[in-house]
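Sorry, I am new here, but would you mind making up a protein's amino acid sequence and the tokens describing how it folds?
***
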Amino acid sequence: MKLNQNYYKHQMDDHVLIVPNADASFHGLVRGNQTLGDILECLMQDTTEEKIVDSLCEKYKGNRSLIEEDVADVIARLKGIGALDD
């Protein structure tokens, strides 16, 4: 999966925004924290959910099962607005 070309990551202070262009199916902004930014960085290239979890576990040294849940939730939400290509 990969971030759809109609969506862009924008960093603004401590927040990360997902900004759709005019061709996107979703029209609005999504705001998140740096963890969302890290997930989006992984999604700039074709990747898997497992690789994203591995990357976050390496960076944050957190509980893997909680990180898996959070990544799954973010991916589901991004799919819901059409921001991911499978």
